[in-house]
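Hey, I'm writing a tutorial for new members on how sequence and structure tokens pair up, and I'd like a real worked example in the thread rather than a made-up one. If someone can provide the structure for the chain below, I'll link this post from the tutorial.
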Amino acid sequence: MPNGKKSHLLIWLAGFTLATSLGAQDPADWTFTRSNAAMTGVSPIEIRPPLTLAWQLKLMEKPKGQSELLVSSAVVRLGKVYAGCKDGKFVCAELATGKQLWAATAKGAFDGAAGFSGPLVIAGCQDGFVYAWNADTGKEVWKFETMAEIHAATNIWTDPTTQKDKVIIGSYDYSVYSLDAETGKKEWSAETGYYINGGAAIFDGKVVFGGCDAVLHVHDVSNGKELKQIEVGSYIGNNVAIADDVIYVGHYGNKVEAYSMTDGMRVWDYGERDFEYFAAPAIHEKIVIIGGRDKRLHGIDRVTGKGLWEFRARDRIESSAVICAGKAALFGCDDGYIYLIDIKDGKEVWSYEVGAPVRSSPALAGDYILFGADDGNLYAFKNGPPITTK
């Protein structure tokens, strides 16, 4: 529940500057899996339904006895889209056509989304390695070995002093690593108490990550020094989102919560049913949006933590929504549909049946919207034409 008028006021005032405080990527690209290093899950692109299927690319065939063909969330840069899949393939394709340009293979699944640094595209793999390839050719440039499988998405932080990029990524060896993006050399590592599933969010010189030890870890992103531990009390299955010194997290304790990054105090909690939250939250001005395993997308007041609305789907929601142009939330669902929901009232605006669970987070780049699905395909949809006024 709310924990003090001061925290409420800070969030209220900060909501008006959220979009500018996090910086913006080129709308033609989607270089961060959750839109920015703070992982707030927002895009300036307005969705104009109905979307049309532009192309689909088969990343893998279904092996005998395997129930799902998970395809990772995609990232996009300079007209090329990058995604991995469960059978150890990582693919680069042409954004406009879906034509495969190159593919790399490894001995484990690529669950987490990739990141970019200079000429490189970088992703972690369940074989325990972080791989860096030339983004144009697919040639391996370096790889770094952790002590266990990697499920987490890649995040990139640029040191303001040296202007050098660092790769921030977690592993099932209980650690989060900072690697020199150019060489793959380890800069620092921070040990936690258990597996790390989600990506690490970065805001104002701090990196925040959680995992199966039920703790939010706050570290100095430049040197890995621990600044704070915040007890959440239950598994954290995905990344957190950070906005204006407030950390937003959904977890297996059937709650969505907000914590002050300054003092670690809980600002509010939300949760009305005994169902876990695996998806990551999306943050926009005065609203937090997150899908749950209760088959609902939840709209939550960012200031008070009170529920604003719920959208009922047909199955659990593990896809992390993206808020588009401050108007609508886009996400996939285990019921095999992609949904677009009006964030004012939670009403459905548009939907499309893929026919297989969609657990990846959407990528929005120019006129294209991309989803990976559990049928082994990467789907690209074309946005509707711009609305013209006479």
